[in-house]
Amino acid sequence: MRVVPAICFALFLGLGLAMACEAAGDLTRDLERLNRLREAVNVDADRIDYDETERKVVASGKVRIVLGNRLLFADEVSADLDDQIFVATGHVILMEGFNRLEGDRIEYNYRTNQGIISNGRGTIDPGISFSGVEIRREGERQYSLKDGSFTSCRACESESSAPDWEFRAGEATIYQDEWIASRDTSFWIKGIPAMYSPVLALPIGPRRTGFLIPRFSYGGRDGFGVKEPFFWAISPSQDATFIPTYRTKRGFELDGEYRYVLDENSRGTLGGRYYHDLLSGNQPANRGDGQWTHDQVLSPTWTFKANAQYQSDRSVNRDFIDNSAVERTQAVLDSVAFVSQSTPDYLFLGLIETAEDLSGPATNWATRLPEARFQWLPAPLFGLPLLAEGNTSAVFFTQSHTTGTGRFDLYPALHLPFELSRWLRAETSVALRETAYTSAEQPGGNTNRFLAEAWQQFESRFARRFDQPGFGFQRLTHVVEPSVGYLYTPWVGQQSLPQFDGADFISGQNRVTYRLANRLMARREEGGEVRNYELASLSIAQSVNLQPQTRQFSNIYLEALTPERVDQAVTDVRSPTKGWSEARERRLSNLVFQGSLSPLPSLSLYGAVALDVEQPDTEGVNSGVVVRLLDSLTLDVGQTYVRSLSTDGLVGKLLWRVNQALSIDWLTRYDIRSNTFWENTVHLRFSTCCWGVTLKFTNLASAVGVPGQSSVQATFDLKSPTAATAR
Prior knowledge:
64% strand; 4 helices; mainly beta; twelve-stranded antiparallel beta sheet
């Protein structure tokens, strides 16, 4: 007969124990122990007996004991009332939350939650499995193994096969969510020994101090390389990673990154690299770089941000192939820190900035130390239909090979919007601009510039809706937005003014600009949700210069004229003086077409074409396509052509998740004119439930000052909680 309720078990114990206690003359003591046992456990078993000689209660046959949040299963369990110990035998399982212990026999103190299990196996959160001839539970989160093993593969692999990897140790102590410390330890891969260590300390958990898995690489210029990351969990709000690296041909490198969180609104990182470069060429052997980023919310309206960068020489990032493509192609080394305030009425920005040009043959740098900008947002003026807004800034510039210069710029504007009809809107605007400098570029030149501007804008908007047009669409809306504008800015000689940025040269304008935009908006239901998106768009824009002339233009201004801009167009550029060029204005700007098309959720196309209608010729093309198939394949290809810069290239990115374990990531940069692949980088990633390996192949073509080179890097990771700490 099977006894289920705990009350029946307690009554049975009470009767049997009472008779034994009367014979022994110690009824009071045993009744107290019985009450303590009744408070601690709930028992379900086929049979319950009392051993008068051993003074033990024995439960047998599919025993199930509940001890608070713990469960004990066994074929037989004996309870010693004196020592408060359970001895369980036969298919023993002890469970507590996600933690599980099982084996042939367990001796367990249900008060202290400690015990010894023979020929045992165990699993603890978050997925560490272990076994041993003897396992001791020495505390709430501590286990000791004798002649044991541990791995994280058992959570997703069959018990009958050898795990993909495991550590075997003569002795080991597991501190849950912290460490595994072991002695006489070997590392096994599929049952084959691969490494031995007399002592080992393996961090487990998301943020635990310790060494991570080494990384290996080989490059034609770098030679064989090895990296040994070390993670330091400084505190709950701070941690750091240090990565010593040795390359047989290049020498020693040390990377470091420190991360901190001051509070929920303030965090940042501080990192750097030091190289002792054996192939530094004409650069010093001891090289390096550093970065600091910080983001902080000071109040609901005030923020502080910083992004500082340092390089010991201008080519240090380009010289190492295992740097990212962004680092290797960086054209400007920029460092900036600023505070800003944003309100519904105005915006304020105070900053300091330094910038160094990394692309030119010589060292050129510029600083803004400091700069203050204030912008008051459009608002009604004295209750009139006029809107007033403005920008003002004050900055102190320094540049290489020049003296420091201060600049003050004041730019207020008034707008008068009005509706001419239901379908036509107009806006008339006037603005003044005063720009003053503490010194001039040319001796005796003017140190200020005053401009008056006026512009008129007409725009309209037409729309037509098509309900249930088919092809799975609930609605299509065609929007047409034509506009035409006129801008007048008088020409002012500015050769005496220093040139730092786009505010220092304002091109004279007597120009009409027209634009026609078409957009097709779609609504469709996907996965039970209604989605609105832009299905297609096409815009055409051009401008007419009513008084084209041959003028002197700032080189900074000319370099910023991309083919897609319609506010200016020049030709016959010549460079008579430093920083300035003579050019003839074209009457018609480029005719610019811009469009996009998303016929399917998985397909997007975009592009822009700039045509010189006076030559005629194609001045520039930017186009691209993005394809996403079955959530496993993404292809992104972009093309850029600029005739004036002799630029014609492709950038392609491919991400293919072949299956659950294998993925391929590919990046290429191809120059069409020279038929040269500037870069090909392929990441091959294979990942199982408990380990992963990444192979990275990079090939770079030779460029000015940088030889061509190839590199292969291998990264092996154990899928344990330590993986979250890898950087």
